[in-house]
Write a structure and sequence with these properties.
single chain; alpha/beta; Collagenase (Catalytic Domain); Immunoglobulin-like; six-stranded mixed sheet; globular; disordered N terminus
Length: about 400
């Protein structure tokens, strides 16, 4: 009888630990301490962020699978992008669950995530790389980020957010690098059955919030409790709490260092609660995140990235087995982008470019250049432009297409 009770309690304890969020970022950063770091900051910086600008982050997913279950579907990956765009825009349906006392602090971070549509050479891509691996699982040691170690190498971290999806050891749901970590390691890692909101997912982590949480670290946020007893996360509008919360507490949930009767902000994306309980970033967290993209900030180079736009795909030939063909919905190819001298505008898939207006505006909305498409292929000399980011508009009214171009 005693043996049976002992086994019961052991199994109960283990089942509880399996249902608890485990983020490996702190362990990862601790293990990286005293290692040689190299800044991942690009040398090419164009400008400061504009007030309330929506910042686009191109994402490439590296799916590393040892078996068919781990080779998750495109639909599951795209569901994760939907979650990210909702959570970072305060458009998540469960935003209404934020307690009234915390709603004044909740913020739209104004960041958009997209599947990368062009690789670093301008070739078309669907932003998803799949590789079979002989590794049954990965530790928090970056092996999944190296082709030599059975993983996949990072894409340029100045233009892409790398997300590695694999089987993590030790019940870890994910971990992230932070701004300033080595460029070839930059990105986040997510357990394959904690990514997105469809597919074969862990019951408590089936709404895509693991990636929301880990990208928060990638964007410079700490855990809300500051990773110490009654610690400080450096954000002015997240209330102090004694430690992490797990499962799904009831509001208000008090801790030994709660500043008032509102208690812990356990529904913050940077706590450890279940996916269903998370629903906000604060204005302070938003300000911290957006500061990384300011001039001289460690993520400023993303303001130059045009990899979200399918029109950055090159019209040149694509090496066999490297990337998919140009998708049928892509109607224009604009290259090179960034531009040094000439910009080529090429109609694809039957798009009628002849006779359409071609306009270029600076970021204050002033018209810089205007012409009319003369044929299916147009070359424009833009050597007169100063270095910076511009908007290219083709066509008018409902048919207009607007793209970001970068002048070197």
């Amino acid at each position: 009888m005693r043996l049976s009770l002992f086994i019961f309690f052991i199994l109960f304890a283990l089942s509880g630990s399996f249902g608890q969020r485990v983020c490996g970022t702190l362990k990862y950063e601790t293990s990286m301490f005293n290692k040689e770091f190299h800044s991942n900051q690009s040398n090419t910086q164009s400008r400061d962020t504009l007030p309330d600008e929506i910042i686009s982050i191109p994402v490439v997913f590296h799916v590393l699978y040892n078996n068919a279950i781990q080779n998750i579907s495109d639909a599951q990956i795209l569901s994760q992008l939907q979650v990210l765009n909702e959570d970072y825009s305060r458009l998540n349906a469960d935003a209404s669950n934020t307690p009234n006392v915390f709603k004044p602090f909740a913020a739209d971070v104004r960041i958009k995530f997209c599947i990368a549509r062009a690789d670093a050479l301008g070739r078309p891509t669907n932003g998803i790389i799949r590789k079979h691996t002989n590794n049954v699982s990965y530790n928090i040691d970056d092996a999944m980020k190296s082709s030599v170690a059975g993983g996949d190498d990072a894409w340029d971290c100045n233009s892409y957010l790398n997300i590695w999806v694999c089987n993590l050891a030790g019940h870890n749901l994910g971990y992230a690098t932070q701004p300033g970590d080595p460029a070839d390691k930059d990105g986040i890692v997510i357990q394959f059955d904690a990514l997105g909101k469809i597919g074969n997912l862990q019951p408590d982590f089936n709404k895509g919030r693991t990636a929301t949480h880990e990208i928060g670290h990638w964007l410079g946020l700490k855990h809300i409790w500051g990773d110490s007893d009654c610690g400080n996360d450096g954000i002015y509008d997240t209330p102090q709490q004694s430690s992490y919360n797990n499962n799904c507490p009831s509001f208000p949930h008090m801790s030994s260092c709660s500043p008032n009767s509102n208690g812990d902000m356990f529904m913050n994306f940077m706590d450890y609660t279940n996916d269903a309980c998370m629903n906000l970033f604060t204005t302070g967290q938003k300000n911290k995140i957006r500061s990384l993209f300011a001039l001289n900030g460690p993520r400023n180079s993303f303001l130059n990235s045009s990899a979200c736009d399918s029109v950055t795909e090159s019209a040149g030939s694509v090496p066999a087995n490297s990337t998919p063909a140009i998708p049928s919905e892509v109607s224009l190819s604009i290259y090179p982008n960034p531009i040094d001298h000439d910009l080529n505008i090429v109609a694809l898939n039957g798009y009628e470019l002849k006779g359409k207006s071609i306009s270029i505006y600076n970021l204050t909305g002033s018209l810089i250049y205007k012409s009319t498409g003369l044929a299916a292929v147009n070359k424009i000399n833009l050597s007169f432009l100063t270095s910076g980011v511009y908007l290219l508009k083709i066509g008018n009214n409902a048919e207009k297409k607007v793209f970001k171009i970068i002048k070197l």
